[in-house]
Amino acid sequence: MPLPKTILVIGRTGRGKSTLCNVMAGKNVFKEGDFGASQTRQSQSEKIIHEYGYSVVIDTVGLGDTKLTERQVLDHLASSFSLVSSSIDQIIYVFNGKFTQEEIEAYKLLKVLFGQDVSHITTIVRTGFSKYRDINACEIDKQLIMNESNDHRDIVSRCYKFIHLNNMNEDDQPSQENRKDARTRILIHLNSCHKSILTNASTMRNNINNHYRSLEEEQRQRVILEQQRIEQEARVLAEKKRFGYDVWNQSVSIINWRNLYVTKGAPGGDTFYQSNCNVPNASTFYIQEIEGYRVVIKSQLGGYLCAYPGGQGTPIGISDTITDGCKFTILPTDYNGRYAFLTNYGTYIRYGRRFDVQTHIDDHERFTIETLSYARACIIQ
Ligand SMILES: Nc1nc2c(ncn2[C@@H]2O[C@H](COP(=O)(O)OP(=O)(O)OP(=O)(O)O)[C@@H](O)[C@H]2O)c(=O)[nH]1
Ligand SMILES: [Mg+2]
Question: pLDDT at position 308, please?
Fold first, then answer.
């Protein structure tokens, strides 16, 4: 079988792509980097002659290039295909060290570029692996990578082959025996690859455009959803405000239509009286939101305001625990920001001469609820 013709070498910047291309070529025709900055600035394609025939090797700009955006790198990659035939026979994805999340993101860009899953024609090469001759060490390394996450397992298990190499440079290994080894191994491997896909620069550009268009659309949808969420929250808040939201979970004074304060008698006692000023503690109640816009009203002196079943005149009392009678709905009235308290029994708290309930809302049922910071306190001798 002839060696695959077109081999695309791809990967993040500085991982050893150009070096691997030189290894396959058996000579230095691709510029290898020495420093931190990305070396290969343009894709380079070279026809290389070897024992099995010839191939076209395309060395590419590194994904995550230090000076280019992801989109620019993808556009460069697409352009590199105007140089070659429309078939791609093997993709070599090169990485070294850890297969990080960044590697995963870069690897996933292959699908963007080709518009389809290309794992069946992708070889992953780990460079810089000093134990590359030790089959067990290579297998353990592969397993460890697969165990990192589902993404790792998916990528490594689905690729056509995973190969370890260590292409040291001439300074570190004057004999260059590792590179010779690597050349033999990679060419034998490539000779066993028989699948290919058809593509060209304009298909790739379309794939890239579609990818970014769908990302933009996703982003647009996210913004719309976020706006809808904010509007919905605002609607709910406005609705809650109608039901006294501003005084929920606040210490308050409750003032009747004659501007007299609802005031509780001595601790333990049920009786209420009206005071023309806020008596510390006795005229202080805590309105606690409980469920479905309902509240319980706790006296600072202890106990919860409690209504009982019964019609007009049934007194309001105090309960030590929260019973159904303690649950009230604060309702807006048509009078100047005042509220009525609807009991669980369909009646309304009334504070005329007594503190009891009435079956409809009129003046007696309209209360002002002042949060404590506004309440006018007085000291009762
Ligand atoms: N020890 C060792 N060094 C390597 C190996 N592969 C590459 N290198 C070194 O890593 C550096 C970067 O290698 P390049 O081949 O230029 O990397 P690249 O992926 O082409 O980088 P960009 O062109 O910037 O995207 C060079 O100094 C190489 O000598 C390897 O397998 N082992
Ligand atoms: Mg390079």
Answer: 96
Residue 381's pLDDT band, with cuts at 50, 70 and 90, is very low
Same fold, 6-216 and 245-374: no
pLDDT digits (tens, 9 = 90+) for 35-79: 666 676 788 889 998 888 889 999 988 887 667 788 888 888 888
pLDDT at 380 over 70: no
For residue 170, give the ligand nearest its CA. 1
**Exposure string over 353-373, b if 16+ CB within 10 A, otherwise e:** eebbbbeebeebbbbbbbebe
CATH 3.40.50.300 fits 6-216, yes or no: yes
Q: The CATH number of 245-374 is which of 3.30.470.30, 1.10.150.20, 2.80.10.50, 3.40.50.620? A: 2.80.10.50
> Ligand 1: distance of its center to the CA of 169 in Å?
9
The reply to whether ligand 1 has any atom less than 6 angstroms from the CB of 12 is no
Ligand 1 near 68 CB (within 6 A) = no
CA of 101 to the centre of ligand 1 (A): 20
Strand partners, 125: 94, 163
Strand partners, 50: 53
Neighbours of 259 (CB within 10 A): 11
The ligand whose atoms approach the alpha carbon of 44 most closely is 2
- Strands across the sheet with 122-127, in order? 44-50, 53-59, 6-11, 90-96, 122-127, 161-164
178 lines ligand 1 (CB under 6 A): no
Q: What percent of the chain has pLDDT over 90?
A: 66
Could you read off the pLDDT of 253-311 as tens digits, one per residue?
999 988 899 999 876 666 898 888 888 889 999 999 998 899 999 999 999 999 999 99
Best mutation site among 18, 19, 24, 28 for ligand 1, i.e. most ligand atoms within 8 A of its Cβ? 19
Query: Pick from 261, 257, 240: which is nearest to 372 by CA?
Result: 261
The ranges assigned to domains in the chain are: 6-216, 245-374
The finding on whether 165 has its CB within 6 A of some atom of ligand 1 is: yes
Lowest-confidence pick of 26-40, 145-159, 274-288:
26-40
Query: From ligand 1's centre to the CA of 375, what distance in Å?
Result: 75
62 within ligand 1 shell (Cβ under 6 A): yes
CB 338 within 8 Å of CB 381: no
